[in-house]
Predict the structure.
Amino acid sequence: MQNPAPSDPAARHVPVLPAEVLERLDPRPGETYLDCTAGLGGHAVLIAPRLVPGGTVILNDLDEGNLARARASVEAAAPGIRVESIHGNFADLPRVMLERGLAADMVLADLGFSSNQVDDAGRGLSFRADGPLDMRLDPSAPITAAELVNTLPEEELADVLWRFGEERASRRVAAKIVAARAEGPISTTAQLASIVRSAIGFAGHGRGKGGKRGRQGLTIDAATRSFQALRIAVNDELGSLAAFLEAVERSAARSGAAGTDTGRATGGDTGGGRHSTTGDWLRPGARVAIIAFHSLEDRPVKRSFGGLAERGVVERLTKRPVVAGEAETGHNPRARSAKMRAVRLAAGEAGG
Ligand SMILES: C[S@@+](CC[C@H](N)C(=O)[O-])C[C@H]1O[C@@H](n2cnc3c(N)ncnc32)[C@H](O)[C@@H]1O
């Protein structure tokens, strides 16, 4: 795909915190970049040209369509670069990387969903356009939001809305959903949004019509938190993040035990695309960056990276979470809630 059509979402896609990601990951020729959430390839396209000659880009995504788009974009941006595609959950990456004999010098996880996924009414991620109540990022995954909404006992439903959406009216919303489904299955996003709004009521969240003020003073639709909660539950987003962080922690501990130098492992051509010689999926000195979009994601990242830094097995590359400046939020509204944290593993040879 040399010249993507203007209607191609990848062609219109703007990645969040582009300069900040490049600065923290600091890609060099010959290195291997692992993109845990390839999406439309926005970050990978920025990084790939800096890896040549000899570098490798490993793309991973739950969504096969996005994975193919990201691959095409990377191949167009850095012709001839080695690209590996992995379709799956990033929680499984450490195992899959080892099975394929791959190891990364840089890792990015840009969490959540991409603009084309949320814009596609057929995926049911948004209440802005009516669509089936699906919400799966991987369309081959077994559970849809409709199944949760129509089958979970009321108390469990309230628990999901509270834990994953921090919805203060969780019990009221769950009760409304259970009453509504007794009349017939809830199968569309518009149906669910209207049930949630009716449970919360226009006055429920105080300000704005059926909504409330968010961090940036923007009105948030009353259904936002419930939709977020169901999306997180359907895709086990926090479970995947926890498993991924544990794998980073294990790898960092091994690197830390093998050498306490948290400087860069090697400069220049480190033989990108090579197989893992350390028995680990992260190479010594690997830089790991995670971009979170809400506090439920950012909190475990903060805790995990902070713990590793306290143990002295990583160097913090971000003292505070990096957020977008006004110039970026002005043209990319999604960047408003982005928070990036990054660390560098110790450069000593890691054990197996
Ligand atoms: C915010 S987008 C990434 C955008 C990308 N950085 C870019 O610039 O184009 C998030 C992507 O991560 C994918 N995703 C979300 N959770 C995932 C998981 N647990 N494992 C793998 N991919 C995941 C989504 O399918 C989506 O394509």
